[in-house]
Amino acid sequence: VGCGHALPGIAALLRGARTVHFQDFNASVLTLCTIPNVSLNRATSFRAPPPCLRFFAGSWAALGERLQQEGAQYDVILTSETIYSPSSVPSLVALIARHLRPPNGIALVAAKRY
Description:
It contains 4 helices and 4 strands; from the N terminus they run αβαβαβαβ. By secondary structure, it is α/β, with parallel strands linked by helices. α4 (about 90-100) links the parallel β3 and β4 (about 105-110). The longest helix is centred in the N-terminal third of the chain and has 19 residues, at about 25-45.
């Protein structure tokens, strides 16, 4: 969530994750940073068979609606430096709570303290 240059997702892929979904608010970040960085690493580093990769642009609320329609749930949700203001926390928490697979799903959130 809030993938930017995609480093946590790439690390997950290098550790053997079979499915990784990347999300950023800005489509231009996905186009100019995320996808090229994933592609460069994919060409030389990821295990066979190829992983399932998806890229989402837009708000956390929009992503949550789309994932809800698909019934998507995740074993692991990673986010780092995505909270730019305290007012955005409830939206992120709602997304994580709704799409973390019970009972053992985990979310790893790296953020500033407010």
